[in-house]
Design brief:
4 copies of one chain form a homotetramer. The first copy, chain A, is 16% helix and 38% strand. Chain A starts with a strand and ends with a strand. In chain A, helix 2 packs antiparallel against helix 4 and helix 3 packs across helix 4. In chain A, strand 7, helix 3 and strand 8 form a beta-alpha-beta unit. By secondary structure, the first copy, chain A, is α+β, with helices and mostly antiparallel strands. At the A-C interface, strand 5 of A face strand 5 of C.
Amino acid sequence: MWLRVSCDFAFDVESPTPFIVMLRPRSGAEQWIERDEFKIAPNMSIIEFTDGYGNLCQRFVAPKGELTIYTTSDVKTSEFVDVNFGAPFVEIQHLPNDVLCYLLPSRYCESDRFNDLANTITVNKIPGYQQVQAIEDWLRYTISYIPGSSVYPTSAIEVNQKGSGVCRDLAHLGIALCRSLSIPARMVVGYLHNLKPMDMHAWFEAYVGGRWYVFDATQTGVKGGYVSVGYGLDAADVAIFNQFGPVVHTLKQHVTVTQIKN
Amino acid sequence: MWLRVSCDFAFDVESPTPFIVMLRPRSGAEQWIERDEFKIAPNMSIIEFTDGYGNLCQRFVAPKGELTIYTTSDVKTSEFVDVNFGAPFVEIQHLPNDVLCYLLPSRYCESDRFNDLANTITVNKIPGYQQVQAIEDWLRYTISYIPGSSVYPTSAIEVNQKGSGVCRDLAHLGIALCRSLSIPARMVVGYLHNLKPMDMHAWFEAYVGGRWYVFDATQTGVKGGYVSVGYGLDAADVAIFNQFGPVVHTLKQHVTVTQIKN
Amino acid sequence: MWLRVSCDFAFDVESPTPFIVMLRPRSGAEQWIERDEFKIAPNMSIIEFTDGYGNLCQRFVAPKGELTIYTTSDVKTSEFVDVNFGAPFVEIQHLPNDVLCYLLPSRYCESDRFNDLANTITVNKIPGYQQVQAIEDWLRYTISYIPGSSVYPTSAIEVNQKGSGVCRDLAHLGIALCRSLSIPARMVVGYLHNLKPMDMHAWFEAYVGGRWYVFDATQTGVKGGYVSVGYGLDAADVAIFNQFGPVVHTLKQHVTVTQIKN
Amino acid sequence: MWLRVSCDFAFDVESPTPFIVMLRPRSGAEQWIERDEFKIAPNMSIIEFTDGYGNLCQRFVAPKGELTIYTTSDVKTSEFVDVNFGAPFVEIQHLPNDVLCYLLPSRYCESDRFNDLANTITVNKIPGYQQVQAIEDWLRYTISYIPGSSVYPTSAIEVNQKGSGVCRDLAHLGIALCRSLSIPARMVVGYLHNLKPMDMHAWFEAYVGGRWYVFDATQTGVKGGYVSVGYGLDAADVAIFNQFGPVVHTLKQHVTVTQIKN
């Protein structure tokens, strides 16, 4: 399916402020970017670079005043995410070198503290996809998904204690549980077609059967329409904005996803 | 200045043919890509990757029939290229690691055979920018620039013997001469505003005074309006199309560059 | 100064166990490896790779039985680490792209929770080296350095609450405090000449004045004799051993550092 | 088999001269470096870096006087190189991204000029390993291998005209022929057990059946005992020494390869 995605953001910047932005999707294994637009005002010098996870980022110093960022892309993505109940656990020694880092605990995914819970959730499951499926199901029925309920990222331990969270929070807990079973898992931020309420979204991917699969405990049914803009260990790596210095007031944050072709 | 550049290509493909394409400009030190569109028909699976020089490339297998590729970008680039007669030669030991490869001889730039000529051309010049300027001037007055005069890349030795060539040929000879003086030099392909006749273009960059500078013996005066789509050692690395298998007939090749804003 | 460093480890492996090891130092800006030996028994297939931080790692599956790893290197390193009280804070927009990741919070360095404490510790200090020096001094006088007091990594928040820790713990807190002030900081594990008791060691580096400087709150005076074997965001990235599966009993762990030449 | 390899070089340097050296073997898919020593005198500042092909290189400025480089390694390598007559040609669209560059023509391998000869040599051969085998056989019976017969690299075209060459020359022609058939091929320099006369050696690898295979037209029979120190497109990339400036006189060049264990 072909989606047109866009972000329309405006900020009130009180003093010159360095920004790092991650909002420009790239073509990859699961999506093709046919058209892409990225407009920042006022006119300023922008440096684009690729971070250690392969994400396209922009750096600039926003001057005092209103800052607007408008980005839109036309993206070909799958109508249904791939599901493969038979995808087996990949033994550590057979993981590709560049997947190994997704086994490590990270800021918001303290996987070193979740081994007991993960074993309980996945008891009697065949190692691999079915374990991750059990984790996703457990999240869906145990952690209440409440969009807008948190502003700052919370960690897997905190989410588990609180019992509720935003999309990012559920992803953090899902990732921590997977990694505690030695299943590589990573955070993804991006867009999702028909997300309600519409906003930027976060989900996770797990590496089983020799490739990455999408999991999203905030949704039901086997839906597709995902567009990735950033990958990383957790929300620390894939902040769509990192802004340094005094608080910046958000004046507008408007996200759209529209299907333009089959 | 803001330029809108575009390529509109059509080919007649007689049997399924693998292609590797390098036609999608990236934001970099000297240009910012605000808008980008890349359309290929018929609909097929495309893999986008970054090559060893940082260029964005697309791979696909074109089926039998007509293949069209249309790409366009809105690019902010300099109205005048930087000129710095005082930029000194950088001693080998002070070159960045990733610049060293641009000292090596390559397929079409046999720099290991040009030391005498380079010394003659640059006699009494201050090492650095002024040597490269002397090389550019020598090319301009010695090698006739005849657009359309060659189809396949010719090497620096061949160009020097022939005394004429297309933009790519002049760049090859300029690069070979620079490298023979231990000045790193690289090939660039892309667009140039007001190029006559309009087509894809090629020029070279030399590393002096701690950065890359643009040189183009096919043009006179200090003009800007360059948009890069690929960098490499020579035309072997920066072919805008690499096609494998039987000959593919070009049905259309239309390039435009228009100024859209100051 | 020239140091001969070595590790002599033995483990009792109960069932075939995948290992990832980070114990082979590399030549770098601050050290030159003249000689290097890395012996693993029994004989097995080993894959060596470079991780995302540039560390040299080895992967293998240890069979049931005794596993021994012996590694030794002759290393040229500085007799005194560089100290530069005048090294200024580097504004975010001037940091190199590949240093930016060291600003992010990580598993054991929750820098997003330390802004108040960092400001208190560094009040009236000139931004840059002097802030980091104040953090190191504060650590030295506030957190008791008790070698052997913890086995598993503890995070900056936990260390701050506990008031004591091993070298790794002090480094975690130092890193979190630096990052909360937007000073890039990274974890280093390796060897230190004359460390008492002798063991593998951990310290941190902060990026000020355009380069990395060594800080180590466990030592007093301006000493050198550091040999790095791994860099990363925190102990999650720079574990000298990652072992997957059932517990492995350590039979021997013997570390030596000897000066062999001036 | 376990080999102890060593280089013992001495040069008379007339004025301070920048060097780039590629003589330190790395562990890889086909070899494991257990011990490694790299000694340069006089004492000077050395920077070690990894080039674009993954080779470990050292940069330094040799002062006036005698320069000695001594390097030795203990290496586990195969007693027999892998042979697989059934390894098929890999279609372009199935080659890994990072193998694609080995299809391109390069300084000393003008593969764009060898299509007719390659087709003649490999007529009726099954695409893949058997084509490369035919090329190796053709080289062995057509191009006389005369160690020491050339000092500077010569290109595939020149070697083909001359009908004789050193190991490097035969490799260049073999690589050019493979690439002209769209088979990725790369140059390797290193050591070979029982090479006569003993010296540094060069051979080539071709990518068929999903991996690299060793080919060496200078040897007969299926031997092993290869130790790689550098990979690249051709001799331009894998010079064991690149020295910039006035001629440096070689005083000693002594290479040894000894079997130390089975």
